[in-house]
Amino acid sequence: MKVRPGDAVRIRELHTVDDKPIRVPDPERLTHLEFRRFAGCPICNVHLQSMVAGHAQIVAAGIHQVVLFHSTPEEVRTYARDLPFDVVADPDKQLYEEFGVETSLRGVLDPRATAPVVKALFRRGGTERVRPFTGATTHPTGGHLGLPADILLDPAGAVVACKYGTHAYDQWSVDELLDQATHFEQA
User: Fold this and answer.
1) Nearest CA to 166 among 115, 97, 119, 110?
2) pLDDT of 25-60, one tens digit each?
3) Is residue 3 part of a domain?
4) Considering the entire predicted model, what is its pTM?
5) 141 within domain boundaries
6) CA distance 91 to 142
7) Cβ neighbours of 150 (radius 10 Å)
8) What is the CATH number of the domain that holds 176?
9) Half-sphere exposure of 41 (CA within 13 A, CB side)
10) Largest CA distance in the chain
11) Number of domains into which the chain is organized
């Protein structure tokens, strides 16, 4: 079942792919749970590059980023190494199920999902990369059909805001995330 603003989520300890324990939600700041598709997903890679570029702004706004992939820790370490935020593997999709994050063939075939990847290739001439990317695996854990979701939690575990993607690139931009945090602070 999808969560909605005002819902309370259970406080828990997760472990990053580097085996670092983290509390979700963070006890002192907002937590942005970013449910992504599989590790190595080219669509997710383009989006994560924008989050990396905006990471300093996100931290300055008091937001702890936690990125989840429905992949094994080994797969995530291969494709998402050196990201400046906490990365969690959820190969059994337990958290995806708990938070109502879905899959959809239509979501992957939507032209809005692939357009950012094509634009990034043309913008960079097909060779320059902000972050290393070795290509998507042909048989990712959890499959190819995941949809993204963004959930912003306050330190007590209340859902401040959320967005469930309707296609594979339908997620908050850095500016949208910062806007959600600003609205929370004003409330």
Assistant:
1) 110
2) 999 999 999 999 877 777 768 888 899 999 999 999
3) no
4) 0.81
5) yes
6) 6
7) 21
8) 3.40.30.10
9) 28
10) 45
11) 1
